[in-house]
Write a structure and sequence with these properties.
The chain is of the alpha+beta class.
Length: about 150
C-alpha cells in the first residue's frame, strides 16, 4: 500500500501545474476545454403596492411587497450592446405587470414571472425570485413573509 503525504505547499504546486497544463495545452488552444462564463442580472429591493393574499380585505386595501430577481445566462461572446444581454428594464416591466395582477398566492405570481421571462429570453439558464409581503395580516407579527422560487433550465 502506498501512502501519499502531501504538504500544503505540494498541493498548491500540484494545482498550479494542473492549471498551467489545462490553460496552456494544445487541447485548450484547439477549444477542447471550454470554461463557461455566467452572467447574472439583478433587480433588487423593488417596492410595489399590490393586492395579493387569501384574507378578507387584502383585495381592497392591498399592501407593500418587495421583489428581488436574479437571472443567469451564458453569453455567446463579448457583450458590446444591449441586444447581447438581458435588459433589466424588460425584467422590471415584467415583474411590475405580474405583481399588479391580483392573485391569492405569491407562488402563482412567481411562476408567471419566471415563465414570461424565460419566454422573452430563452438563453436564461437559471432564475431566482423572492417575493416578500411587508405587512402580512398576522396578529402581533412584525416582519415580512414571503416565498422564493429558484428554477434551473
Amino acid at each position: 500500500m502506498v501512502v501519499w503525504q502531501l504538504s500544503m505547499q505540494n498541493v498548491i504546486c500540484l494545482l498550479t501545474e494542473l492549471s498551467d497544463f489545462f490553460h496552456n495545452s494544445p487541447a485548450n488552444t484547439a477549444g477542447l476545454f471550454y470554461f463557461r462564463k455566467m452572467i447574472a442580472v439583478h433587480l433588487k429591493d423593488i417596492k410595489i403596492h399590490a393586492f395579493h393574499g387569501l384574507y378578507e380585505g387584502e383585495e381592497l386595501t392591498g399592501g407593500p411587497f418587495e421583489v428581488n430577481l436574479t437571472v443567469w445566462y451564458n453569453p455567446s461572446g463579448p457583450i458590446t450592446s444591449i441586444d447581447q444581454t438581458i435588459n433589466y428594464v424588460v425584467l422590471f416591466e415584467t415583474v411590475k405587470q405580474h405583481m399588479l395582477e391580483r392573485s391569492s398566492l405569491l407562488e402563482t405570481i412567481a411562476e408567471k414571472i419566471c415563465h414570461t421571462i424565460k419566454t422573452l429570453y430563452p438563453v436564461i439558464t437559471e432564475i431566482k425570485i423572492d417575493i416578500d409581503k411587508c405587512s402580512p395580516p398576522i396578529e402581533n407579527f412584525r416582519g415580512k413573509t414571503g416565498i422564493t422560487l429558484h428554477k434551473t433550465y
